[in-house]
Design goal:
Blueprint (H helix, E strand, L loop, with lengths): L19 H17 L6 H14 L1
Helix pairs in contact: 1-2
Length: 57
């Protein structure tokens, strides 16, 4: 009985889906929508998203 070791290549690094400029545009869009939904309960989720996008871009 022989044992053969197979070397698996490492998976390629994932490419970024969004550019830095995309995050700025998304943040601006979320800010505009946040003003529209300011009095609704979901505004908290959009506010959190706005701040997370600010940390990325």
């Amino acid at each position: 009985m022989t044992t053969q070791t197979t070397i698996q290549p490492e998976p390629a690094r994932a490419r970024a889906v969004f550019s830095t400029e995309d995050f700025k545009l998304l943040r601006e869009a979320v800010a505009a929508h946040l003003r529209t939904v300011a009095d609704r309960p979901e505004s908290v989720k959009f506010s959190n998203l706005y701040h997370r996008l600010g940390r990325l871009g």
